[in-house]
């Protein structure tokens, strides 16, 4: 009889514990959902406004957090032109966090011009609040005189040119490339005006008397134009 009583008591305790566990599950799920809901709301809203004299073309914002593209120009945040300034409002920034950011311009060929100067810094607003950053695109916008010199041998009737990804370099159109002079042969030299602080690609080629061209071997050369003033490149035909 005692054993039966113990077994009955044990069953009663187990049933009560199971019932308590089942009753607690909806509350736990609700708590988890509330936590998820709270985490989605724990973001800062910031409005970025850019004035000054940026280059023409679409402007973008990029920076050190995921909402700003993690410094990747390919996923930078586009700005909207209001008639006086460029701006964008983001509602997915981490709260109370110092972020680094910068503006950039892209032309229709995909060439990127970064805002001159050091990175901008912003400490985002607290959760549920908003803030703003007003910036100015400063620095030179005057084209940079860029000289190209390449050590290249040719035979009679050939000429050497430089072409590249910027309009001032012909946008890879050999008919609009920059001609180089052979006054100091075998050094061929020429110059053109490039937008400042702009990343680009370029390459040399020979043009034969019949109009056909011979590109130098290897991949495209890469460079970034100077922020202001002038710039010079000395290369050797590969």
TrEMBL record:
Catalytic activity from the UniProt record: Endohydrolysis of (1->4)-alpha-D-glucosidic linkages in polysaccharides containing three or more (1->4)-alpha-linked D-glucose units
InterPro entries with a match to the protein in the record: Carb-bd-like_fold, CBM20, Ig-like_fold
SMART domains: CBM_2 (SM01065)
Domain of life assignment: Bacteria
Signal peptide residues on this chain, from the entry's feature table: 1-29
Domain CBM20: 38-139, 136-238
Cellular component terms per the entry's GO annotation: membrane
Alphabetized UniProt keyword annotations: Signal
GO biological process: carbohydrate metabolic process
E.C. number(s) listed in UniProt: 3.2.1.1
SUPFAM superfamilies given in the database record: Starch-binding domain-like
Enzyme class per UniProt: hydrolase
Gene3D superfamilies, alphabetized: Immunoglobulins
Compositionally biased tracts (Polar residues): 221-231
Any GO molecular function: alpha-amylase activity
Region (Disordered): 215-238
UniProt protein name: alpha-amylase
Organism: Kitasatospora atroaurantiaca
